[in-house]
Design goal:
The complex is a heterodimer of chains A (187) and B (139). Chain A is mainly alpha-helical. Chain A has 7 helices and no strands. Helix content of chain B is 79%, strand content 0%. Classes of the chains: A mainly alpha (187), B mainly alpha (139). At the A-B interface, α1, α2, α3, α5 and α6 of A face α1, α2, α3, α4 and α5 of B.
């Protein structure tokens, strides 16, 4: 995203861009989210709506697996072009900087992303239908995210959710469930 | 049925897992690089899936509207944002706010296209989500 520019502007004050590569496992109490971060997350979430609309349209014309395949293919090309653009705009002095290495497993995010497509396609075509798939998927997302935050698994910072974090999450989940079921019962 | 419910929950967990892995990759590289690898690796995994499921190029693909091809480009920005956000906000709040944005936009879209749904439930849902977003700022 153009988030990259935000990232640069923000990293001066944002704490968890760790200088050390092995992310720190401090159970610190994080600062409240910056309004910019909240706005970025809400905008990214609305991009997801557009993306699902687009991929759904492709799935309707072909198959869900083909829709995901083309989305990942087009995405690879677009991301490569954007990376090339960033690379060219970098001052040439910085280009030869030694690279820090990420563990190989960190490259596997795409595998679980691709698997999501397959699983959710199975569930959506079952008796659980779209409403059930969305609601259960939401539950799975939130539970695992809380486990990751509490344990600091997979090398990201450990953070204990505070009371207001949990309240915020609960309100968002409750509102989301209402909207999902509003749609399910309205048709 | 129990099996299907587990599958549904698992598909949500995979979303979180993917975001966590991409976020970890972005720590050492950049958000855009994590998005690139996410899409490329996903593509490589999906090629055999597509071959098993049918063909790499269904005949109807050519007739799909242009917008149906845009999902991948939008996804690049979406994954990069997630990778940028997750070290800053943590997995739970990142996921929550992304879902909040998704729901607010899809309700607006539903209303614009005047598609069905129980209106009071949608309004109450939006109010709860806005409350949640406001709470996330409070300490």
């Amino acid at each position: 995203m153009t988030q990259r520019r935000l990232a640069v502007a923000h990293s001066a004050q944002g704490p968890p861009m760790p200088a050390s590569d092995t992310a720190s496992h401090r159970a610190g109490s994080p600062r409240p989210p910056h309004p910019l971060e909240i706005a970025a997350a809400l905008c990214a979430g609305s991009l997801l709506t557009l993306m699902l609309l687009s991929n759904g349209m492709m799935a309707a014309h072909t198959t869900p697996v083909f829709a995901s395949l083309t989305a990942h293919g087009v995405g690879s090309v677009v991301a490569a072009l954007l990376l090339g653009l960033f690379w060219m705009r970098r001052p040439s002095a910085q280009r030869g900087q030694p690279r820090r290495r990420a563990p190989l497993w960190a490259y596997l995010g795409g595998v679980s992303g691709a698997l999501t497509v397959v699983l959710s396609t199975v569930v959506v075509n079952s008796s659980l239908a779209l409403t059930g798939t969305l609601a259960l998927g939401l539950a799975g997302q939130v539970v695992l995210a809380l486990i990751f935050d509490i344990t600091g698994a997979l090398g990201l910072e450990k953070r204990m959710p505070r009371r207001n974090d949990l309240l915020a999450l609960a309100a968002i989940v409750a509102g989301t469930l209402l909207i999902i079921f509003a749609r399910g019962s309205g048709q | 049925m129990i099996f299907l419910i587990c599958l549904g929950v698992a598909s949500g967990m995979l979303v979180t897992l993917s975001r966590q892995l991409n976020g970890r990759l972005a720590l050492t590289t950049s958000a855009m690089q994590s998005s690139f690898w996410n899409h490329l690796v996903g593509f490589v995994v999906l090629v055999p899936c597509a071959l098993i499921a049918g063909s790499l190029w269904p005949e109807t693909a050519a007739s799909a509207p242009i917008f149906a091809w845009a999902g991948g480009a939008i996804g690049v920005i979406f994954v990069a944002s997630g990778s940028w956000l997750i070290p800053r906000l943590g997995a739970a709040l990142t996921g929550g706010l992304l879902v909040a944005g998704q729901m607010l936009s899809s309700v607006s879209l539903d209303l614009l296209r005047s598609e069905g749904g129980v209106l009071w439930m949608q309004i109450a849902g939006v109010a709860l989500i806005l409350l949640g977003v406001w709470l996330s700022r409070r300490r």
